[in-house]
Amino acid sequence: QVQLAESGGGLVQAGGSLRLSCAASGGAASSYSMGWFRQAPGKEREFVAAITPSGGSTNYADSAKGRFTISRDNAKNTVYLQMNSLKPEDTAVYYCAGKFITIATMASAYDYWGQGTQVTVSS
């Protein structure tokens, strides 16, 4: 059983940056692909980025390409989401999620979820 805990959210002005962290515990986290999702009020949860267990392959939503970078440090059991050039439309609760081995973009494919961290981008 893997437990996930996000941190790093907050309030930032448009054009600013934030780095989210997701700490994993309780299982072989290095065997899991990890994803970041977000959910804005009144909207469905959407895929942002994902990374394979080794970190050798990543996948991004079109909205994140060129601005966000997902990475991981398996020695620290932590996954990161570096977010640059933030826009008001990036405002949402950001969740990290884990699934065994294979990378995926659908939320339903993930088995483990964190509690989420709020990101608010002001204009």
3D structure, described in words:
The model has no long low-confidence stretch (mean pLDDT 96). The protein has strands at residues 3-7, 10-13, 18-25, 32-39, 46-51, 58-60, 68-73, 78-83, 92-100, 112-113, 117-122. Strands 2, 4, 5, 6, 9, 10 and 11 form a seven-stranded mixed β-sheet that branches. The chain has a four-stranded antiparallel β-sheet with strand order 1-3-8-7, with no helix packed on it. It contains no helices and eleven strands. The protein is globular, with a radius of gyration of 13 Å. The chain is an all-beta fold.
- Enumerate how many helices there are, as a single number: 0
As residue ranges, the low-confidence spans are none
Major sheet summary line: 7 strands, mixed
Shape type: globular
Question: How many beta-strand elements?
Answer: 11
- Work out the oligomeric state of the chains in this entry: single chain
Hey, roughly how much beta strand do the residues contain? over 45%
Helix content: under 10%
* Helix-strand sequence: EEEEEEEEEEE
- Average of per-residue pLDDT values: 96
Helices and strands: which structural class? mainly beta
Radius of gyration: 13 Å
Distance between the termini: 40 Å
Considering the chains and any ligands shown, give keywords for the structure.
123 residues; mainly beta; four-stranded antiparallel sheet; globular
Ordered list of secondary-structure elements with their pairings:
Blueprint: E1 3-7, E2 10-13, E3 18-25, E4 32-39, E5 46-51, E6 58-60, E7 68-73, E8 78-83, E9 92-100, E10 112-113, E11 117-122
Parallel strand pairs: 2-11
Antiparallel strand pairs: 1-3, 3-8, 4-5, 4-9, 5-6, 7-8, 9-10, 9-11
